[in-house]
Structures are given as structure tokens and as C-alpha cells.
Amino acid sequence: MNRPNVMESSYVPQTGNELARLHERIAPLRAQLSDHPVYHEIRTIEDLRTFQESHVFAVWDFMSLLKSLQQTFTCVTVPWVPTGLPVCRRFVNEIVLGEESDEAGGGYLSHFELYREAMHEAGANTRPIDRLVEELHGGAEVSRALVAAGAPEEARVFVESTFSAIGQQKPHIVAAAFTFGREDVIPDMFRSIVRDLNQRFAGQLGKFLHYLERHIDLDEGSHGPMALQMISEVCAGQPHRWEEAEEAAAQALEARLALWNAIRGRIQRARSHASTAA
After folding, report:
1. Distances (CA, A) of 88 to 61, 144, 229
2. This prediction's pTM
3. Any idea of the CA torsion for 211, 213, 216, 222, to the nearest 10 degrees?
């Protein structure tokens, strides 16, 4: 398998000026996501279903970002050969274990499968995401599968932005989209959702709350800090990589903002339509 060019290095990651500048660049976007109005828009179970039916596509495409990193930083071919960048290798192997086969109710589930169960618990429609998986199993390209599945427009646009980052085949770009578009920002986003859900649906939605709280715990406690180390390792000594990583991070956060804005609009339109029909 042809691997993207990954620097072989014994560099020990440090939180230096480059990472500080990247954080400064994306700080306004992170602030908007941390307190986005969509979290407060989920007032009824119908609102939650609307949210889940779009958000599930972001839950699904997260795994493709992760698997792209796994292909780059670890050996997934036979015969096995050792690869460089040990921090990246450790991080990817650890997160694959949690994301693809986490402990759940005495068994093991991927977080995508857990989210799908949470959708059933809330009565959300899983047919589009199920159709997407069926189309992909049948060999369809992602863009065609999204159309065939009837994915919400905002979900389709978000997934295509994810696969655009993957398609560049530059490890630092994928790592930046993964780190700053997902791992680093998820605890703040999900904490806002959990707070409102606990106030409005006390004692309900156990699986969905478990999904959210599990990500807050993992991403804040271990995955987020390790992801920052991964960025430092893969970009070390390469100014152009830091520049491209910074741009990729901003684009990933902007894509999430666009997704949240569109979902908020969808919830509001559905509520207005229901009110008019009544």
C-alpha cells in the first residue's frame, strides 16, 4: 500500500508557538461552537429526532477520518512492518479500540452503533443512515451513497467536506481535521447538549446521554490531549505543515458551524410547520 509521506522522527511533542498560533486562529470558531444556539433549540423529543437524523452522519464519517489516520500511522497490511511516529501510532490504536469496540451493556459496540441505538430509543428515523451503509456495502461511492440514502442536505455537505480533507492524502491535514474539528471541541459541544437534555428529559434518553457523556469523558481526559500531541509530532519542524494544519482546522470548524446552523434551521421549520398544522 502506498502511504502518504510521513516524517520519521524521534521528536518529543511540545506545546510550542506553532500550536499556540493555531489555537489563537481557531479560538473564535471554537467559542461559537461551544455556545451554539442549536443546543438550546432541542426542546422536545421531536426536536431531538430532527437533530439526530442529521448529526448521525457526522458520527458515521468520524470513523473514516480515524481509519485514514490508522492507515497512515500504523501498519494494517500483511506482512507487518514497523512504522514511525510512535505518539501518532499509540493515539490511533487507542482511539480505534474505544470508537470501534467500546464496552456497552456487557458487550461491545462501536460508538456509531451506540448512536443508532440511541436514535431508536428516541424514535428517530434511521432509514437514511441505514441506507447509506447498505449502499457503501454494495460498493457505491460516498457521494452517490449519500444521494441514494436521502441524507439531509446539511449532512451531505458536511460529509463531503470531511472526505475532501481525507482525499488530500496529507496526514497533517487529516490529523488537524480530526483533532480540532472533533476531539478538541467535542467536550464543550456535548456538555452543552447534556446540560439542556438533563433539564428537559430527566430520566429519559439513557443511551443518547451515555453516548454524549462517554465522549466528554474520553475526549477531555485522554483522546483530546493525545490528539494535540499527534499534531505536534506530525508537524514538527515543518512550517508548511503547520500552515496547512491551521487552515484544515479552521475549515473543519466552519463545516461544523454550517452543520449546526442548518440543523437549527431545520428544527425551527419543523416546529413552525407542526404549529401551523395544529
Report:
1. 20, 32, 8
2. 0.91
3. -80
